Amino acid sequence: MARCFIFKPDGIGDFFLSTGVIRLLATEFGEENLTIAVLPALESVVRGQFPRASVITLELEKKRRILNVFVANFLRCFPSLLALRHINPDYSISLRHMRDYFQSVLFYSVRCRKRFVAENLLLGNKRRIRRWTEKLLTGFFSPTVIRYPKSKDIESLPQALPFELEAHRRLVSALLGREVLGREIMPRIFPVKVFPRVGICWVCAPFSSDPGKDFPTEGWIRLLNSLEPQELPDRLVLTGSVGQTSKLKDFRDQILSSRSEKSYSIQIFIPPSLQDFIDLLAMADCVLTVDTAAAHASTALDQRTLVLFSGQHADMFAPWSTSSRQLWMLPCKALNTEAWHSRLENKDILASLKKILRETRNT
Fold first, then answer.
1. Which of 68, 133, 206, 248 is the most exposed place for a label (fewest CB within 10 A)?
2. Residues with Cβ < 8 Å from 190, sequence gap 6 or more?
């Protein structure tokens, strides 16, 4: 059986988007014949979702501290670089489409028969050295390079997929030598352990790593207070990253102070790993969030999910859905002087929430 190397040192939500492609490759090659390279934070997810695959973690940093970024990343990743040199797969595929110098070096350091990449989106910044480096690498290693979809392609796409998913579809089609359908690479993740459930539980992940994507906390509170007592959950779990703990505590206190009566309990839970985060979302009866990792994970789990979507990178990474149980609310375009959420009215959010709460899972 042939072996395949998958290069994906990317963000959390970006990795969730790639899970459908990885599952397809696991079916084609056998999961035990996959080696997946990811950032350390995602190791728990790879081991949880693809337990028979091999995983190589890449200690990559984006910003300079003392040393040049390339040099610092080279030193941090030297053991991983040696591991990559020894795996010798038959095929290598990069699901990372914004490759800096060192990421390109890491990908091409793997010795294999055939390589598959999409156009490097970082070449758009018109840096000559970056373009020359990319041309040198592709000229020497002769990978199969597919064209990354663009806005003008929307109407001609075979399925309404975000560009990132369409790029994955084109790549895996080239690798497998057949036209892969969109439904074959739709993201899918599963829980590993079951959280105890008592009554109806909602999970709210209100904050993104990019504050520009966040919906005002008073807007979330207005939404919760607009629900009738019988529509509310028994428990609301607020979640996010460790760095968001303080904001989550402030949010919890604001909710508590806004209520005239205690109709549901509120707790904060910071999962110890990303797989635990997936398990938490899988337990929820409904997930409320913005455009962040929770939105992609919950959608890949086919949970009831309401996403208040800022529209950043619209069509590239989102919106997308597994079923009618997910709804990404993209407001009417705001004026340049307005915040993205200024035209997202509570009555519309409330109607959307009630709509997804009526949805059941297809079996």
1. 68
2. 49, 278, 282, 301
